[in-house]
Design goal:
Order of helices and strands: HHHHHH
Strand content: under 5%
Number of helices: 6
Number of domains: 1
Mean pLDDT: 83
Helix content: over 70%
Number of strands: 0
């Protein structure tokens, strides 16, 4: 195999592993989030499940990233604008709480 071909193959492999790492890093920790909600807040089991569901729904609309502009960018998506105001509010609250959870976990 030529040297150039080896470099291309190595580059593709590095890109693949970087993508896997990024996917793992961005994977949402719904179970940890639900446990955190149960211990930090006095939410019922049904409310905790609803929060996780709203968070997953937001993630389907726009892949979650821990940044202040996430909610703004989410609000610009067509999917978000097609839901009722009540659901928008619930999604925003779930995202804010998840952001708080992520920030607290990063401090530990």
């Amino acid at each position: 195999m030529s040297n150039r071909r080896q470099n291309i193959d190595a580059s593709k492999e590095n890109c693949y592993y970087r993508n896997i790492y990024q996917m793992e890093k961005n994977r949402m920790d719904c179970e940890g989030f639900k446990n955190w909600l149960k211990t930090e807040y006095t939410y019922t089991e049904a409310t905790v499940k609803d929060m996780a569901s709203r968070l997953r729904r937001a993630n389907k609309m726009l892949e979650f990233f821990n940044d202040d502009v996430y909610l703004f960018r989410l609000s610009q998506t067509e999917d978000f604008n097609n839901v009722s105001p009540a659901v928008k509010s619930q999604i925003r609250k779930a995202v804010k709480l998840y952001t708080t959870y992520i920030n607290e976990m990063e401090k530990k």
